Structures are given as structure tokens and as C-alpha cells.
């Protein structure tokens, strides 16, 4: 659900990190970026709207008003939506470099349902 909402807003460099083997607080990190703060905010809003329609509300939302790095906490799934230069600076993929990952090509428009429903 959330991945398709991200794809609908044309997010860049979408990566799903499987952190469940080494993390006690989440199973997946979803990381993507937007070309502007407005796109970052639009991606975050689309995810929240899609999840709310399914009756799922975030445990927490951080950074939404600034649009530089928005974090959406859905318990087992944590979504990081970055403004492109901010993503380069923090480089979360490097910090979690030892975990399995799925990189979604930018031209992907929809992702078939994953086994865990992310």
C-alpha cells in the first residue's frame, strides 16, 4: 500500500531495507526521495492518505512541515522520505548496508503486493 502511494507521486530511488533480523523496532525501512520539499510533502501526504483509507494511522510523523526529511512510523514499517541532497548527506543505506534490500527502478508505476503487505 505505502510503496504504491510512493510510486504514484514519482518518488526517486525507492529502496526497501529488510531490517527485521537486526532491529527490535521495525521490520522494514522504506527510503525514497523527492526533487523538492513540496514533492517530499506530497509523497508523505499520499502515503498517509492511502494508509488511513485502510484504517492504519502512523504512530508518529516527523519533519513534515519542513519537507527535508519526513519520517512516517507505522510500527513494523518506517518510511523515510528525503529531499535529494539531504538523503545524500545522511546516507541511511550505508548505515544499514548489511541488510537485504530491494531497489525499485524509478520507472516502476506500481508494485505487486509483497508477502508482508508493505
TrEMBL record:
Keyword terms: Cytoplasm, Repressor, Translation regulation
UniProt xrefs under PANTHER family: IOJAP SUPERFAMILY ORTHOLOG (PTHR21043), MITOCHONDRIAL ASSEMBLY OF RIBOSOMAL LARGE SUBUNIT PROTEIN 1 (PTHR21043:SF0)
GO cellular component: cytoplasm
Location(s), subcellular: Cytoplasm
Superkingdom: Bacteria
The encoding gene: rsfS
GO terms of biological process kind: cytosolic ribosome assembly; negative regulation of ribosome biogenesis; negative regulation of translation
Pfam families in alphabetical order: RsfS
InterPro entries, per database record: Iojap/RsfS/C7orf30, NT_sf
HAMAP family linked: Iojap_RsfS
The protein's name: Ribosomal silencing factor RsfS
Stated family: Belongs to the Iojap/RsfS family.
Family matches, as SUPFAM superfamilies: Nucleotidyltransferase
Subunit (UniProt): Interacts with ribosomal protein uL14 (rplN).
Main localization (coarse): cytoplasm
Function: Functions as a ribosomal silencing factor. Interacts with ribosomal protein uL14 (rplN), blocking formation of intersubunit bridge B8. Prevents association of the 30S and 50S ribosomal subunits and the formation of functional ribosomes, thus repressing translation.
GO molecular function: ribosomal large subunit binding
